[in-house]
Amino acid sequence: MLRNAVYLLVILVLVWILYRMVFIDVKTEAVLRAKVNYGEDVKAICQEEGVPYQYIMALIILESSGRKPAGSRFEPAVYDKLKKVRSGEMIKYSTVTTSQIRRTSEAELKQLATSWGPLQLMGYHCYELGVPIDALHSNNSALRVGIRWCKQTYGRYLKDGDFANAFHFHNTGRPMPFFGVTTTYDPQYVFKGVRYMESF
Predict the structure, then answer these.
(1) In the chain, pLDDT over 90 holds for what percent of residues?
(2) Are 28 and 126 members of one domain?
């Protein structure tokens, strides 16, 4: 009986050590990649915009693992909703209205339904920002435009240091639910974001 308990304890300790090693290695790699690829630019833009550097760097890790180029992700569910807005079946989706996208082609609609850049901003946010969609995926402007969108959309949370609500809003378009149960695609998204901030 004692021998079984010792074996179980040893296995649990080994699993915990392995988990910690993997988590720390992955975290360290992403942090280093984000610093090398975006650190200086983020620092300069955040100083200009009055946005917390640590928050944006953590967001870059969450959204694109610090990779450059960041890549893109097509969202079929968003595309279906935008198609309905374009045809008039839906009045609007998020901030996008029928009048804005009535004449868009299929290719343009797909771009609007894709997330772009290091902050993985949805293409349709170009309307709110008043920029062409290319600005969201150009290496020269995606970072600046993304940071501006964060400030414009949920800057009040950043100003107050309410980073849990800021991360949640970035991922879902809504603040944290009243009872604190997140609705992010990754249930640990907010927790990870706050933890990543500690690395900067």
Answers:
(1) 80
(2) yes
pTM above 0.70, yes or no: yes
In CATH, what number is assigned to the domain containing residue 151?
A: 1.10.530
How many whole angstroms separate alpha carbon 9 and alpha carbon 54? 38
Contact of 135 with 142, CB cutoff 8 Å = yes
- Pair of tokens at residue 148: 């501006």
> What are the pLDDT digits (tens) for 18-36?
555 444 444 688 999 999 9
* Range of the structural domain that residue 193 is part of: 2-70+115-197
Residues shown for the chain: 200
Contact 30, 65 (CB under 8 A): yes
CA dihedral 158, 164, 165, 171 (to 10 degrees): 100
Q: What is the pLDDT of residues 105-155, one digit of tens each?
A: 999 999 999 999 999 999 999 999 999 999 998 888 999 999 999 999 999
Per the structure, the count of domains in the chain is 2
- pLDDT score of 5: 62
Does 87 share its domain with 137? Answer: no
Neighbours of 183 (CB within 10 A): 13
SS3 75: coil
